[in-house]
Amino acid sequence: MGLWGYSLVKDKIVTNSDGVVVINGESVDSYDFSTFEQMYIECPYLRSILDYKMQCFGSFKLKQFEIVKDGEDKELFNTPILNYLNQANPFDSINRVLMMGMFYEFAYGVSYIKGVRGLRQGFENTKALYCLPSDLVEVRYRENNPNVYNKFLISEIIDHYQFTGDNTVEIIDSDYMFHSDVSSLRYDSNLKCDSIFTSIKGSVENLMYIQQSRGVLTRNRGALGMLSPSPNNKDVLGVVKIGNEDKKAIYEKYKKLYGLKAGQSTIIIPDVPMNWQAMTANIKDLMLDEGSLHEFYVLCDALSVPRSIFDDKTQFNNQSSIQTKFYNDTIIPYASEKAKTLTKKFNLKDSYLKFDYSHISCLQEDLKTKEDVESTKTTRLTELYKIKAINLGELKKELGYVTETKDFKTYYNETAI
């Protein structure tokens, strides 16, 4: 089982105790990631960034509002659509289903969320929603080689989808698929957009090599040096070589007696004359920390996550401001588009869905700041009205009450001045 309980890859990829990648029991000398999922599973750096972004997006509270003409939209509670989406399938809420969708959009440039048919037709009458692994879904067109840039409706392009799971092939009507892609310069033959997989592959591979190198240095301290025959140990043929039996004996003693653990010695006493030649380099000269930080920042930029989110040197106030900006500039716009698409997909005419993040701590601080500003503004405008520097109409306009259809006295009592 892979991401959130779903099987992502068929290959078993592990790293053994020597830092060597092993795929299906066979070791390889290089990192050759063929899928985004493999990178996500293997690389902790990529996983930490992507998990953070997905968790931020998935932290919304689902709300529904009734559209009120000439007034403030009314929040609805305990509606059928809210109850359904809060438990979109037996395992997940809509939050986690859409988080998986975000993952596959990064991996393949497209996500597919299937609606399980109900007794009545239409996506709005589905009984469960599942995010399907994008690499297992194929698009079947209504015509051969369709010109997707010359169509008006998705139904003119797609006839159905084919999902190939574990020993099953399922045909899914296009009306029961929530097909969402990311912005791209082009589509491939399966209506899948370009993903960021290619652009970050090199950085992920570099990070894995750095991690592997650090592991070797930590466990083995690298190539420390060599024992060579002493030039003073000669016979008639010259310097006496170290025999195979001597090499074996020294190596066996080294493994058993010498090391940094309790009770082990830090020096070797051989039975034959030898010289020691050090080969150790300063770990700082390898610049592993600098290299890993550079590649980590490349991943942050590619995934549109602020670098300073992960910087422990960032001050708390600055960290909160950065998180607020991240939500306002990246997460909330993305979530708003998803909410609009779901509203349309569920054919909601007189209401709409909203993904609300106002409960997030950094956004609450931002909201409090805005309320303080509004309070100060209201006080200043009221004082100007008292001294007749502005009239009632100007006061209403500045406070945002510009429509006569609203009862202004509900918000403002002139007799109280």
Describe the structure.
This protein has helices spanning 36-42, 44-57, 80-85, 94-108, 197-220, 244-257, 288-302, 316-345, 361-386, 392-399, 408-411; strands spanning 13-15, 21-23, 26-28, 61-66, 74-76, 110-116, 128-132, 137-141, 158-164, 169-173, 177-181, 225-229, 234-235, 238-239, 274-278, 351-356. It is of the alpha+beta class and 417 residues long. The N and C termini lie far apart (67 Å).
Radius of gyration: 32 Å
Q: How many H/I helices? A: 11
Distance between the terminal alpha carbons, to the nearest Å?
Answer: 67 Å
Largest sheet: 3 strands, antiparallel
Residue runs with pLDDT of under 50 for 5 or more positions: 1-13, 402-417
What percentage of the residues does DSSP assign to strands (E)?
15-25%
Q: Roughly what percent helix?
A: 25-40%
How many structural domains can be distinguished in the coordinates? 3
Task: Write down the overall mean pLDDT.
Answer: 78
Number of strands: 16
Structural class: alpha+beta
List the helices and strands in order: EEEHHEEHHEEEEEEHEEEHEHHEHHH
Please outline what is shown here.
39% of the residues lie in helices and 17% in strands.
Key descriptive features of the protein:
three-stranded antiparallel beta sheet, 417 residues, 11 helices, 16 strands, alpha+beta
Please outline the helices and strands:
Blueprint (H helix, E strand, L loop, with lengths): L12 E3 L5 E3 L2 E3 L7 H7 L1 H14 L3 E6 L7 E3 L3 H6 L8 H15 L1 E7 L11 E5 L4 E5 L16 E7 L4 E5 L3 E5 L15 H24 L4 E5 L4 E2 L2 E2 L4 H14 L16 E5 L9 H15 L13 H30 L5 E6 L4 H26 L5 H8 L8 H4 L6
Antiparallel strand pairs: 1-2, 2-3, 4-5, 4-16, 6-7, 6-11, 8-9, 9-10, 12-15, 13-14
Helix pairs in contact: 1-2, 2-4, 5-7, 9-10
